[in-house]
């Protein structure tokens, strides 16, 4: 078998790799900790419900992974990004305290 390194951004390839990593990780994940994985998304919403920013993330074990952080241009430098990160951090600490 001959292998090639190929640069490509196709969704099918990304989906395959993510799926294999998830399968491997779950096979080696302690059963007592399996309830501690959680997708956690926070949003900045205006009173009319319009989203003006947010943080998309995962919390698992004793780590948090922020995938995306966004704040609308007019609201930047107002501390909203920091508030999203701090809120996410304390949410992680609360989840770690759970059995």
Key terms:
single chain, 99 residues, alpha+beta, Aminopeptidase, 3-stranded antiparallel beta sheet, 35% helix, flat
Describe this protein's structure.
The structure is a single chain. The chain is of the alpha+beta class and 99 residues long. The chain has a domain of 64 residues: Gcn5-related N-acetyltransferase (GNAT) (Aminopeptidase), CATH 3.40.630.30. 35% of the residues lie in helices and 27% in strands. It has two helices and three strands. A three-stranded antiparallel β-sheet has the order 1-2-3, covered by helices on one side. The mean pLDDT is 84. It comes from Paenibacillus donghaensis. This is N-acetyltransferase domain-containing protein.
CATH fold call of the domain at 34-97: Aminopeptidase
- Report the order of strands and helices: HEEEH
Separation, N- and C-terminal Cα atoms: 48 Å
- Summing up helix and strand content along with how strands pair, one would put the structural category as alpha+beta
Q: What would you call the quaternary organization?
A: single chain
Query: Percent of residues in helical segments?
Result: 25-40%
The strand line-up of the biggest sheet is 1-2-3
Q: Which residues sit in consecutive blocks of at least 5 with pLDDT less than 50? A: none
Overall form: flat
């Amino acid at each position: 078998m001959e292998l090639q390194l190929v640069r490509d951004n196709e969704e099918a390839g990304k989906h395959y790799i993510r799926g294999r990593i998830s399968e491997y990780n779950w096979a080696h994940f302690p059963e007592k900790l399996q309830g501690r994985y959680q997708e956690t998304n926070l949003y900045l919403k205006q009173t009319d419900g319009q989203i003006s920013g947010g943080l998309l993330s995962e919390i698992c074990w004793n780590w948090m992974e922020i995938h995306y952080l966004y704040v609308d241009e007019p609201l930047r430098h107002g501390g909203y990004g920091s508030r999203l990160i701090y809120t996410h951090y304390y949410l992680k600490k609360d989840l770690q305290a759970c059995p």
